[in-house]
Amino acid sequence: MNDRLRVGPNLEVLRRGPTGAKRRPILLIHGVNPVGPAAPFLDLLAAHGDIIAPSSPGFGNSPRPDDFDTMYDLVHLYREVLDTLPDQVTMIGLSFGGWIAAEVAAGGHPKLDRLILVDPVGIKLGGREERDIVHFFNTSPAELTRLAWHDPAKRPAGSYGLGWQAAINDTMSDAEMITLARNWDALALYAWRPHMYNPQLKHWLRRITVPTLVLWGAGDGIVTPDYGRAYSALIPGARFRTIEEAGHHPELEQPRAFVEQVARFLQEPSA
Fold first, then answer.
1. Is 119:223 a contact under the CB 8 Å cutoff?
2. Is 85 part of any domain?
């Protein structure tokens, strides 16, 4: 169901899980667009915990205060979200949301129990003239689609990741198009320069102390699996796994394989 999370700017939040059951909270931080309520992985993932999936300020129907415009603001907002949840929270970050989750985990939080990063951006690995991350805003929608998806034709209806502009058609309502454009504007505000990374984060990933799983679409052309392996190696004890026949959004292209990897990780002993 859609609700409001009374933190900061009173966030829109998607919740999924059985009513009245007290189970592991799973804080899901979205990527380019908030997670759609019809995304197939949601019900599969809800078998393993109670999903709390806010829309970040400026995305979806979450308001953005005028003075809320940096990654610093987002990171501290999600620390406040963790404050409101019961102990032992699993945090999952998707793409841009993986960057946010990595920043939160590097700073530490007493309620954070496990961390799952899914094709995250956020760090710079190559030299000054090398591009680690395909430019989200200076690349054509058709090319973004080609690089981001193993098979764009199998993208679930109503799920929009990178290259969403190429998916616009006559069946999309004006309200949907406005929301997608609003999400894109918010992403540009938070992450245009430096493009999709924090120059300091690479050096502080070593501060992450919770068990961490880094999941990657084997066919991701936005941030390659090699980037993912290097990212994972910077986090002490992190496990790195790939998902076949998936690109930058494996939770959308391969929902069952994605949830199987998550479930296996959640069942492992914390040590």
1. yes
2. yes
- The residues, any chain, with a CB within 8 Å of residue 38's CB and separated by 6 or more, are 156, 157, 158, 159
Q: What's this model's pTM, rounded to 2 decimal places? A: 0.96
Q: Assess whether the previous peptide bond of 194 is cis (omega < 30° from 0).
A: yes
For residue 9, the domain's CATH number is: 3.40.50.1820
| Span 6-65, pLDDT tens digits | 777 889 999 998 766 678 999 999 999 999 999 999 999 999 999 999 999 999 999 999
Q: What tokens were used for 35?
A: 């997670």
Q: What is the number of structural domains in the chain? A: 1
Strands (E), the chain: 2-5, 11-16, 25-29, 50-54, 89-94, 112-118, 212-217, 239-243
Q: How far apart are CA 188 and CA 196, in angstroms?
A: 9
> What is the span of the domain harbouring residue 164?
2-266
**Residue 150 in domain:** yes
In a domain, 271, yes or no: no
Q: Which residues contact 145 (CB under 8 A, 6 or more apart)?
A: 152, 162, 163, 166, 167
Put the strands of the sheet holding 212-217 in their side by side order. Answer: 2-5, 11-16, 50-54, 25-29, 89-94, 112-118, 212-217, 239-243
Sequence-ordered list of residues with C-beta below 8 angstroms from that of 155, at least 6 positions apart, any chain = 149, 161, 167, 249, 252, 253
- Cβ-based neighbours of 142, under 8 Å, separated by 6 or more: 163, 166
Residue 164 lies in a domain: yes
Which 8-state DSSP code applies to residue 157? Answer: T
Distance in angstroms between the alpha carbons of the first and the last residue of the chain: 34
The β-bridge relationship of strands 11-16 and 2-5 is antiparallel
Cα 116 to Cα 134: distance, rounded to the nearest angstrom: 22
Q: Each residue of 152-184: pLDDT tens digit?
A: 887 777 678 898 888 777 677 888 889 999 999
